[in-house]
Amino acid sequence: MSISIILPKDKIKKEFKRLSLKNSDIKKIYYANKNALIILKKRVKIKPPKDLMPSKELEEEIKKIDNFVEEFKYLIELERVAEISEQISEIKGFSAKEREIFGRAILDLKGQKEPKKFNLYFVRFGRERVIDTQISPGDIVLISKGEPLKSDLRGTVSEVKKHYIKVAFENLPPKWVYSFGIRVDLYINDITFKRMEENLNQLRDADQKRREVRNIALGLKRPREIKKVDFKPFNKKLNTTQKEAVSYALGCKDLFLVHGPPGTGKTSTLIEIVLQEVKRGNRVLAVADSNIAVDNMLQRLANYDISLVRVGHPARVLFELEEFLIQAKYEKSFEVQAIKKGWEDVGLLAKKREEFSKPTPSRSRGMSYDRILTLASSGKSQRGVSVKTLQSMAKWIEYDRKIDSLVGSLRAKEEEVYKKIIDSSDVVLATNSMVLSEVLKEFEFDVAIIDEGSQQIIPSTLIPLMHSKRFIIAGDHKQLPPTVVSKEAEKLKKSLFEELMELNKDFSKMLKIQYRM
Ligand SMILES: Nc1ncnc2c1ncn2[C@@H]1O[C@H](COP(=O)(O)OP(=O)(O)OP(=O)(O)O)[C@@H](O)[C@H]1O
Ligand SMILES: [Mg+2]
Question: Which ligand 1 atom minimizes the distance to the CA of 242?
């Protein structure tokens, strides 16, 4: 029998020394819960101290989590690479004209500047000839002077019309976009993959609070018993089964699943759950994988008197729901004028700074900023740098430091406003992946309500789960599974919803009456 020991991840070296163990004594290491489970080779005969001996249960947990994280990180990497290479080979394998016929590219465009909005730069790419394309709002596109493989300019489509396509950029786009012969190609968004990977890493080392949810989601633990909760429905049309599903969902301590064929009222049931949770004073995270599904929930919730905020890229949110966007709420906040004024001051200071000599390495001869300031105030020249240059550089540094500190405080203020908006909302709506965006990633919710759960890959569903205490998922595992491009990553086609339905059928309710004909 091999001996296994458990150590905090950052104490391996120290403890090994204490136990007189060598790296060559290790057969395998598993990492989870900020610990390392070390399996020693059979030949190693030591008697480890009691506190380093893992229980059977903990050993199983750490192995399972490590294997799971490694496997799924590998699968999503396969899928990411497959999706990118599919795009690139398509761009390479077909002529520009062919790509345009397939609706995957638009040629012969010319850019025109549009007003800035929500900190985004908009460009309208137009032409005489009618545009007929598959590219639609929310898509990521690659903009080029005709050769997409030579460009790395990416933007998000915000509007597609007969004679133009509007694209939003996070940074000021280069001047060439305003010339003739611009080509726009459909591209992939790989930030969602980065976020899934980040979440898997966090899930591996989840703190005690989040470990419970994680272990239930991964089938290491059974959910706690449900005690049905009575409620007075907001939606008077709900049928008996739908109402029962709501009662169970409200009474669940860990998880509840709502399933049923298309049009049986899964989303309607989730909406009722959201409203009841808000009524009980809980903070709700309402998510789905697609923007359309999130907007669908938002549209229905907008009929009620609760405070809602939609976190997402403005180009991917339905125009008529714009008022719910966090960016729109930010623009309306009372602090925004002061912050805007602050940014104008930054611009003025930067102009002022330009009047002085920048301490480039050649000009300052390698002297530090502090050294330059001291010399300038004492009026001494050094290393062949004249007093005049030193004093000009000192001025430059003074302005630079003012800018830095102002920018820092403005960013902090902006963040505070965004946090306040989230804090004061009853329901936050976003896609799974956006839960890991800058504004949301530090937040934790009382409950996550997840729609269209059967169309999401497991690493995606796990993002909102790691930000809430309980979760309720609606889905239909008999419908199409999530799309997966990579042949080797087929395993991703099984959603967490489907997995959980197999493990916890007794924690689910099936809706049967179809309303949509
Ligand atoms: N109990 C009910 N009485 C009358 N109409 C209902 C009832 N439940 C749902 N509906 C209506 O049926 C339609 C479909 O409902 P809903 O979108 O909630 O179903 P779903 O199961 O989420 O559908 P999908 O599978 O497409 O996501 C909606 O127009 C909704 O208002
Ligand atoms: Mg639905």
Answer: 1
